[in-house]
Amino acid sequence: MFDEPSHRYWVWSPRRNAWLQPRSTSAVLTRSGIKGFDPFYWRRSLIEKRKLRPDEAESYMELHREERADIGTELHGLIRAELLGQPYHSRCAESLLLLAVWREMFLPRIEAVVAIETPMVSLAYFVSGTPDLVARVDGAWMTLDWKSKVSEEKAKPEAGWKPQLGGYDLMVEEHHGIRLEGAMNLMIWPEGTKDVWYNRADVNQAREEFLGATAWSHAIDAADGCPVHRGALEHLLTLHPGALEWIEAPKGHGPWTIERALRAPLAQHP
């Protein structure tokens, strides 16, 4: 099940007779240390160049992040409505500009569609996610993820994008039984767009990074005593024994985390 207002996924467990909540791809990457933004230099620039006090700088960063998140969320809704031919009422002026740019520069490139923002849960790896689009674009079948940007100057890829697409690729294969040819991030700002392409070899590498992040995410929770994540970790390691070595251990964790996770009591093991 998918709850739209909270953007959360739930899976029914007959063994536990309960609904379980798998972590999203974004949360997995954050938990494992791959995804995250260090605001140190931004904060320093606001204080030294913009002459804000430290508390004002913190408030500014929080408000800016919230504003950008709202614009990004609305842009996704506008694009989904555009593709499905549904009405959508905008609250953010900038998101309408971004939609117009997307419609002019990218929409004609879409040749066929498999899924539009379809929530997916991997029962194999106990993770969830919603690819923005699974489609054939410019002759290639791929997953796509939109990224709203302030300007062309700020249109730069981030570390978590590629492994997140790897996670989406795993879920698309599990749900639809198809092997895609690649993946793409599309950065959109009010005056233009920029593609970030990943071929099949790139996506294969991204899948390993994502599975490594997923394994560590489960290990951290299992080490804290969660039997559900303990079971998910053990199952993942039966499928991919080396997964925990495919990325660096998250900060503050290491072999001791794995040992503790795998030595947790089995009483509630799924």
Notes on the protein architecture:
45% of the residues lie in helices and 20% in strands. The chain is of the alpha+beta class. The protein has a domain at 38-105. The strands form four sheets. A five-stranded mixed sheet has the order 6-9-10-11-12. The protein has a three-stranded mixed sheet with strand order 5-8-7. Strands 1-2 form a two-stranded antiparallel ribbon. Helix 5 (161-176) links the parallel strand 10 (140-148) and strand 11. The longest helix has 31 residues, at 54-84. The relative contact order is 0.12. Mean pLDDT is 92; it is low at 266-270.
Entry summary:
This protein is an alpha+beta fold and 270 residues long. 45% of the residues lie in helices and 20% in strands.
Rounded mean pLDDT is 92
Helix count from the secondary structure assignment: 8
Order of helices and strands: EEEEEHHHHEEEEEHEEHHH
Sheet with the most strands, sense and barrel status = 5 strands, mixed
The strands making up the biggest β-sheet line up spatially as 6-9-10-11-12
Strand content: 15-25%
Helix content: 40-55%
Structural class: alpha+beta
CA radius of gyration is 20 Å
Low-confidence stretches: 266-270
Quantity of strands, as a count: 12
The geometry reads as: globular
